[in-house]
Every structure is written in C-alpha cells, then in structure tokens.
Design brief:
Chain lengths: 360, 307
C-alpha cells in the first residue's frame, strides 16, 4: 500500500507527475473496466447499458432532488468506509462495519427514553458519544482479538457483525421495544430536541458534514501525525515496527476502535436524522458498501469522499433503475461485486502499465 | 399425551438438528480444507454457498430432478472457485480481499437470477428414515438422515485418506506447505492451487444445494446467513483435518438447532439471542484455538491467514 510514497520518489518533474497519476489512474481504469463488464452483463440480460447509465444519472445526480438523495446516503457511507480504511493502514482487513453501525444506532435509540426531557445541547452529544463508544468497542474488539489472540480480524469482525444484528433484533423486539410500534418493532421515538436537522439551505442532514469532517480528520491523522506515520510503518512491516519499538498493539487497537467509532456515528445519524428510532432498517448494507468504497479509494481518507458520493449516487438511483428497466433489486449488488473484483485485480497492474513506466 | 416428551424434546431436537443443520457446514468446510491445504484461503465460499443454493433449486424446479440440481450447484461452485483461483494467481492480488468481493458477487448473482424461483416449489432430496425402530414421532423425525449427509461423511473419510496416502494428496500438501519446495519438485503451484480452489468451490456448491433442496428446503435471500463464513472459520478449529471438520460441523449444527428447539417447547425468551449462538460459538472457538505467537499446529505453511 506504499502508494503515497511512490509519488515522492519521482526523478524529474514530469516523471514525478506520472508516478503520482498512477494511483489515481489505475483505480479509475479499474472502475471503468468493472462498469464495462457490468454493461456486458446487462447486454446478456437484454437490457441497454446506456439506458442504465442514463437512469443512474437521473436518479443519482441529474436534479437537485436526486443530489439530496445521493448526499443523504453519502453520510453513512463515508463513516462506514473509514471503518475499513483506518484499520487497513495497519494491514487489517475489517469487514464488520455493518455491526458497528447497527449497534451504534441501537445505543442511540436506547437513550431516547432516558434523555426524553433532556435539552438538545446535552442529549445530542451524549447519544452521539454512546453510539461511537459502542461502535468503537465492537470493532476495537476485533482488533484486540487479532493482536492478543491472533484471531483473523476479517472473520471475527464479520461474525461480530452477525452477532450485532441478532443482538439488535433481540433488543428491538424485546427489552427496548416501544409498545406503540406495531408493524415494525422499534425503540421509542426520539424527542424533538434530540433529532438532528438538515444542513442550512439543504435537505441533507448534518451527518454529511460530520462524515466529511471525519474523513479530513482521518487524513490528517494518517498523513500528518506521528501516530499515523507509525501506523503506516506497522502496516508495511509489523516486525520492523516492533523492532523500532513502535506500540503496534496500541496502534491496532486505537485505529480499529476509531474506525468502529465512526461506523457507530453513522448508526447514530441513521437514528437521529433519518429513522427517528432504532429498528431493523439500520442493517441497510451501508457497512458492506463501505468496504468497496475503502478499497476503491485505496484506503485514502480524502479519496473516500468522491468515491462515496459516486456509490451513493448508484445506490440512490437503484429504485429508478429497477422500476424503469424491470430489474431485480440485487442488480446493484452484482454491479458492486463486479467493480470490487476489477479493483482488486488492478493491484496486479501497478508498475506494469507501459504508460506509467519510468525507466531509469 | 403419551407422545409428550416435555423437556426431553430439546436434546432430541438438538441431535436431529445437528444432523440436519451440519450437512452444508460439513461440505463447505471440506471444500475450504482442500483449498487451504493448497495454501490459499477462499473467504468467498459464503457467496458460493448461496449461489449453489440458487442454481440447485432453479435446476430442480426446471428439470424436476433434485440430483440434477446438486450437480449443477457443484458445477456453479466449481466455476466460481475457478474464477477465485485464476484471479489469485495474478501477482500481488490478495486472496482474502478477492474472497470478500466474491462473497458480494456470489450472493448478488444468486439474488439476481433467483428472483423468479422464490415462489415455485422444487422436489426435495431423498432422506433415509433411520428412526423406524422407535414409535416416537420425535425420534423418527430426529433420525431422518439425508443422503447428502451420508455422502458428506464418506467424502470426509475419503479426503482424509487421499490427503494422507495418495500422490495427489501429497502434491497438494507440498504446494500448501512450501511454494519453493513445490517448484523444486517441478510442480506448478498456481495451477494446483487453482484446481484445489475450484474443487473446494464444488463442495460448497453441493452444500448450498442441500440448503435449498432439503433443509430448510426452499430458496430465499436469507438462506445462508453466514453459514459459509462459519464453515471457513471452523476449518481453523478443525486443524485442516477433514475428519475433524465432521465433528466441528455436528457441534455447530447442534448449536444452530438450539434456538428452534427451545422455541418448539415454548421457550420464547431471548429467541433472537439463540440465533446468535452459532456465531458466538464460532468466535469463542476461534479465540480458544488461535495463538498470537506460535504457528498453529497442522496449518499449511503458505496460508496467509496464519502467517
């Protein structure tokens, strides 16, 4: 993952520019190749790829309304992607962000009644902190298991995510259930002062601003602090980092927990700004899309922002695409799977494309 | 009522459930054992399991033959394993990450093509009633064993023998333990790993066909809910031994059957928590059997998950 460093070592100005272009160009090419393969898939289904892209444009980016829809979905995706990208800088592949989102949302929903009469200035930060704490504990646990017990974090985090969803079902259907919620068991609705509103002048909730802020902070942490520097060294070579006396365990725990805290925050905004209470809608798959976003962004926190907006646009347009083209709802999952494969295969292309070859 | 067993119904239902629930876990973990013994890990078997369930069900609906469904599911699984194997043969491509992508793609394709098959009913796979000696319907129900379970046991024993005492088994183990040694013997590690991944995928596909064609015996989008992933995790617990895979699968089948068994006798408290039991147990077993410092005994040397 030593992509950022590659750009620094360029010999001359032009060559350096080419080398810097490689980590941007290869993911973009891979994305286009993935879309191309998906287009072929659509052709075999007797559907027009052109019509597909037209509807994605209309549903995701074509109007003010579709932009609002896209940006509202961007918020949880930004934080879910950070939950993958932060541990990834240490070489960990954490894929259980969905569980941290779900439990973060449940933690926020559980506080709806105790904080019912609290003023917003106290209630809102308390709920957000509770959601971040639970999310951080959940993914931090996967990091701790990896460091102290050698348990593979990919498997453990996904298992934890299944456990989180079962736990949510138990709590929402049982101890935390609001008796008034009949059709869809939910926690008690949040009191009005606890709700999170829209950004000034937009119909997009504050989660978007917080998500972008989180990405900026994560970028500063990784690229501009000694903690981030140590994490990148440990991600490149754990043994070397240990020999240097770097606190590898603390780094793994800290980065995993921070990623989980961001995912928990995503769950908080889903409850406080979108649904108004915690219920099964929390498991909407944002955690899984976040994995793809982080890989497409090559775990660069700044690159996550545009990639998340792009995938949120695809997500926002999926209803329109399904209706107009008579496609099943799993169509976007097929697209995501194909793009994911393409981006992983592109790892083999680094340093090999003739255009980027810098001889000497 | 003379047939009312009271609380005794719970262990009986758990035993019956263990036999019923364990079969797909057994097939996936046998397939993953084969793949991991060659030095690669395929996390995508969760997707393969769902894909096998869909293709098996769809084929059985269209042809009327459940065994044609099993065959097609195995072929679909092998195809998917082949794709995983070929992509992982490219340099610098991470097998774990490809597995995550194939998990997503496999279930996506299964849901996409499986949509029209949620409604129609497919013929079930045949089962052998081993409980005929008892007059209790609960005992008869618990001991109705599907043919695929028997085939799974035979496959576990056959694989254990093949890995230990045959030439292909030796080749597989060499490739899994040391790429350099394999190259020195004139073997092509990438080719053998790809073949092992394809064969492993075929096993997982058969496991999927069992899900949709016998138990639970229908096709829907929540059919697997992580069983493929649990099976992959169990391979570590089973120490890459096919026979241990059988015991592990039975243990987990029992854990999975606990929730429905308790519900059948009227225990509804914490119903959803019992659904978490297999995941909690898998995690517990992983924690207990992993080690931060030393290499796991029995682990193939080239396996990235234990390095």
């Amino acid at each position: 993952m030593a992509v950022a460093e590659q750009g620094m070592q360029g010999a001359g100005g032009g060559l350096a520019l080419l080398r810097r272009a490689e980590p941007v160009a290869i993911p973009v090419l891979a994305l286009m190749a993935g879309l191309g393969v998906f287009g072929l898939f659509l052709l075999t289904q007797g559907r027009s790829p052109l019509a597909f892209m037209t509807y994605v444009w209309q549903g995701g980016f074509g109007s003010a309304f579709s932009w609002q829809n896209t940006l509202s979905r961007t918020a949880p995706l930004l934080m879910a992607a950070l939950c993958v990208a932060l541990p990834a800088r240490l070489g960990l592949v954490v894929i259980g962000g969905e569980g941290a989102i779900v439990l973060g949302g449940v933690a926020a929903g559980a506080l709806a009644l105790p904080l019912a009469t609290a003023p917003g200035a106290i209630g809102v930060p308390l709920m957000a902190l509770a959601a971040m704490a639970v999310g951080g504990l959940w993914i931090g646990a996967a990091g701790a298991l990896r460091h102290y017990r050698g348990v593979n974090e990919t498997i453990s985090s996904l298992l934890l995510s299944y456990i989180a969803i079962a736990l949510m079902n138990h709590l929402v259907e049982g101890p935390l259930r609001d008796p008034a919620s009949l059709n869809k068991p939910s926690t008690a609705p949040l009191a009005e002062p606890l709700r999170v509103g829209d950004l000034p002048g937009l119909s997009v909730h504050w989660g978007l601003a917080l998500g972008i802020l989180a990405c900026l902070l994560a970028w500063v942490l990784i690229e501009r602090t000694t903690w981030g520097f140590a994490a990148r060294i440990a991600g490149g070579n754990v043994r070397a980092a240990q020999v240097q006396g770097l606190p590898v365990g603390k780094l793994i725990l800290g980065f995993s927990a921070l990623g989980g805290a961001f995912a928990g925050l995503a769950g908080y905004f889903e409850v406080a700004a979108v649904h108004g209470s915690a219920n099964a809608s929390l498991a909407a798959g944002y955690g899984y899309t976040g994995i793809l976003i982080a890989f497409l962004a090559r775990h660069n926190a700044l690159a996550i922002i545009p990639v998340a907006i792009l995938l949120a646009g695809f997500d926002a347009s999926s209803g329109l695409v399904q209706r107009r083209m008579d496609l099943p709802d799993a169509t976007m999952q097929v697209l995501q799977g194909i793009v994911f494969m393409a981006i992983l295969m592109s790892d083999a292309a680094y340093g090999r494309l003739p255009f980027f070859k810098t001889k000497g | 009522m003379e047939n009312d067993l009271g609380l005794w119904a719970v262990p009986l239902a758990v035993i019956g459930g263990a036999i019923r629930v364990s079969t797909p876990i057994l097939f996936v973990s046998l397939g993953e054992t084969l793949t991991e013994r060659s030095g690669r890990i395929n996390l995508g078997l969760e997707g393969t399991l769902v894909l096998g369930a869909m293709t098996g069900y769809a084929t059985a609906v269209m042809t009327g033959s459940p065994w044609a469904g099993v065959l097609v599911a195995a072929l679909a699984g092998a195809m998917f394993g082949l794709v995983h194997g070929l992509i992982c043969s490219m340099s610098r491509v991470n097998d774990i990450a490809i597995g995550i992508a194939m998990m997503l793609l496999g279930s996506g394709l299964a849901f996409y093509f499986g949509k029209p098959f949620i409604q129609p009913a497919a013929p079930d796979l045949p089962a052998i009633p081993l409980g005929g000696w008892s007059s209790l319907p609960q005992v008869q129900a618990a001991l109705t064993v599907n043919v695929l379970f028997v085939i799974g046991i035979a496959a576990a024993l056959a694989l254990a023998w093949a890995l230990r005492s045959t030439r292909p088994g030796l080749i597989l183990r060499v490739v899994g333990d040391s790429t350099d040694a394999a190259r020195a013997m004139g073997l092509n590690p990438a080719l053998i790993r790809t073949a092992a991944t394809a064969l492993g995928g075929a096993f997982a596909g058969v496991g999927g066909a069992y899900l949709s064609l016998y138990y639970p015996g229908s096709w829907n989008e929540g059919i697997s809910s992580g069983q493929g992933l649990m099976a992959v995790a169990l391979v570590i617990f089973a120490r890459w031994s096919p026979v241990n895979c059988l015991w592990a699968a039975l243990l987990f089948g029992g854990a999975g059957a606990l929730g429905p068994a308790l519900q059948s006798v009227g225990v509804t408290q914490g119903y959803y928590l019992f659904y978490a039991a297999p995941y909690v147990l898998t995690l517990g077993v992983l924690i207990a059997t992993s080690s931060p410092s030393r290499a796991l005994s029995g682990a193939p040397g080239e396996l990235s998950i234990t390095k």
